[in-house]
Amino acid sequence: MLSRDIEIFRTVMTSGSATRAAKVLGLSQPAVSMALRRLEERAGLELFQRPGGKLQPTQQAQALLAEVQRHFVGMDVIEQRIRSLKQFGAGRVRIAAFPGLGTGFVPRVLADLAAAGTRSMVSLQVMGSQDVRSQVLRDEVELGIAAQDISTAGVEHALFAHYFGVVALPPGHPLARSSVVTPKQLARHPFVALHPDDAVSQRLDAILHAHGLQLQTVVETSYTFSLCELVRNRIGVALVNPVTAVDYLDAGLVFRPFSERLEFTALTMWPAGRPLSPFARQMLGAMRARLQADMDGLRATMPPAAGKVALHQFQPLAASPA
Hints:
This protein is an alpha/beta fold. It is built from twelve helices and 13 strands. The strands form four sheets. A six-stranded mixed β-sheet has the order 4-3-5-12-6-13, with helices on both faces. Strands 10-7-11 form a three-stranded antiparallel β-sheet. A two-stranded antiparallel ribbon has the order 1-2. The protein folds into two domains: 85 residues, Arc Repressor Mutant, subunit A (Orthogonal Bundle); 161 residues, D-Maltodextrin-Binding Protein, domain 2. It is elongated and about 80 Å long. This is HTH lysR-type domain-containing protein. Belongs to the LysR transcriptional regulatory family. InterPro entries: LysR_HTH_N (IPR000847), LysR_subst-bd (IPR005119), WH-like_DNA-bd_sf (IPR036388), WH_DNA-bd_sf (IPR036390).
């Protein structure tokens, strides 16, 4: 079966007609029609009905198109990799990270590596955790960083760290006078929250429910940095991950520990059956050092009594990837 005929079939199906497909492919319409008939004969399938000379795809054509599209997605990935190799060579390190760490934390880690003399061409993509996993599954990145609340089937992975929610407040807010904020205090003020289907949001709801309380939610959003922007604009207070909180210390936001442990967790993942590159290994060590430095810096902005509440917890080094 000729791959060119399959390409012509795909173009006809996606463009909607043999005439448009011929223009896209730079072929004559008779050549397109001949390729479709040849494909039908070799496949032994009726892919099109032709009332009045017009092509009408059959259900078999629709089913075949689904398989063909999957094939061409794979080809697109190969073409992108070829373009990348031409532009950067084999030395480029591709990293995908979810927004909770990708927007501020990972750039700080890369800066630490550069300052230490570790240099490499890096492609950093920031996307949702499910998309990070998809990139790793398709072997499109060497290292993925994602929230724990996703499947790790089909990829190598290791727990990076747990870190615990802190209360984000605008400057001068009454809760800033507290060393630690309790659920009861939080429930008294307008609140900006992650969407209800977010796993962290569900854990927070469970904490409030256990105390017989309900938040006064005024805005819901998808990302922690959006929560911080909402707090900065005095729309409400929020519970945010402490890694993103570090990005907003210079913006004047005030952060206090939450009396209950609201857990965020980050995973590292990489393609199955492939060892981590030397740069990726160095990056994992730098991530650990940066998280410790960031949490120490965040702690320094809080009252001394807040020091009794943990902000993070590392996975033991013995369990880190070899």
